[in-house]
Amino acid sequence: MGYDPHVPPRQEIPVKPEQFAPTMPAAPIDPAHGIDVRTKFPVARIKRIMQADEDVGKVAQATPTAVAKALELFMIALVSKGAAEAKANRSKRVTAQHLKAGLMKDGTYDFLTDICESIPDEGSKKGRAKSEAKSEDSEDDIAPKKKAKGGKKRKADTSDDSD
Question: Residue 59: which CATH number?
Fold first, then answer.
């Protein structure tokens, strides 16, 4: 940029973003949002499950692939919502309660409310929380268990004793 006598010193010249890059959409088109998924759902198993239903006739070749991709995108959305809940609660681990909270906040997943009702809330002490509650109540009462030494146990030789 050269010197312009009409621009006062120390004033920036407005620059339009279109000058540098072509117009891009604001949000990425890919629903995975740039998440690299290396594992794929087994298409052959999906096809077998679909054909196990008596009401389903022939299955087109592209159908199990489309179902696998839909399942992959659903899992990305589910885990992302659970991770966001875990971050909001300052937790390092994503639990079933985080997944439940993420699903309950979004009306899109109303069809899962029956399944989510069986998951205990974070406040209740069931499942894994039971062991944590026990350790909180009597942390100093019980001595920690020692790890067993020696590794894998071998079966006793019965051929030596039978002679």
Answer: 1.10.20.10
Joined tokens for residue 132: 């944590």
Closest CA to 33 of 85, 70, 73, 87: 73
pTM: 0.54
Q: Could you report the per-residue pLDDT of 20-66, keeping only the tens digit for each?
A: 555 545 444 455 567 777 888 999 999 999 999 989 888 899 999 99
| Total number of residues shown for the chain | 163
Q: Which two tokens stand for residue 98?
A: 């985080």
Q: Phi/psi of residue 106, each to 5°?
A: -105, 125
The pLDDT > 90 percentage for the chain reads: 31
Q: Is residue 41 part of a domain?
A: yes
Q: Is 53 helix (H, G, I), strand (E, B) or coil?
A: coil
User: Does some domain include residue 76?
Assistant: yes
Residue 162 clears pLDDT 50, i.e. is over it = yes
Q: Provide CB contacts within 8 A for 151, sequence distance 6+.
A: none
Rounded Cα distance, 120 and 95, in Å? 11
